[in-house]
Each structure stands twice: as structure tokens, then as C-alpha cells.
Amino acid sequence: MLKELNALPEKTEYIQAQIERVTNILKSIDKSSSNESNSWLSEERLALLDGTTQLFLELNAIAKSEEATSDTVIIKKVLDKADLQVLFKHVDDLEMKSAKLFRI
């Protein structure tokens, strides 16, 4: 996805923010992977998990959105090129499973 975002000829403020966001997540993944002794409950890894989750929830919402703003249209094209639709299906499935698990 980062490759597709960086390849865009014109980058709005929102697109540039997404490039920085994805870049930071990838850096955190590399840093976290190099330190295998860290527990997944460490603050660093929990922040990585939270950031990644928030990014994909936002992208999932954009993918489902009917909005036609320029940023939404651009992100949808990027998502199609990056072929993240399979990942979004997994996000939807996990969301439904989580909702079932936490129902009272």
C-alpha cells in the first residue's frame, strides 16, 4: 500500500498523512520484530497493534463508503491496487466474532 501511495502524482494533506502513518507502522514492525524478547503486552507492541488496527478500521470504512470526496476516491483506487480486499474481509469477520464474544 505504501508503494501505491508514494506513486501518486499529487498528494493531498490527508494522503501525505497516510503515507507517514503507514511508514511509521512499518518502522515499528521492523523495530518490534528485531526485539523478539518483548512481550506482546509491552507498551511498544500494544501501540503498534493499536495503530495498525486503527489504520485498517479506517481503510475498511473508506472501502465501504459511498462518499465521493477526492481523498476517498484516491484511497479506494490505492486499496484496489494494493489488493487489500481479502484483508478487509478478515477485519469484517473478526469484528463480527468479537461482537459475538463480548455480547452480554
Biggest sheet layout:
none
* Helix-strand category: mainly alpha
Number of domains: 1
Q: Give me the strand/helix succession.
A: HHHHH
Query: In angstroms, what is the radius of gyration?
Result: 15 Å
- Give me the count of strands: 0
Total helical segments: 5
Can you put this structure into words, describing what you see?
The chain is mostly helical and 104 residues long. It has one domain (2-101). The protein is 76% helix and 0% strand. It is built from five helices and no strands. The protein has helices at residues 2-6, 13-34, 43-64, 70-82, 85-101. Helix 2 packs antiparallel against helix 3 and helix 3 crosses helix 5 (85-101). The longest helix has 22 residues, at 13-34.
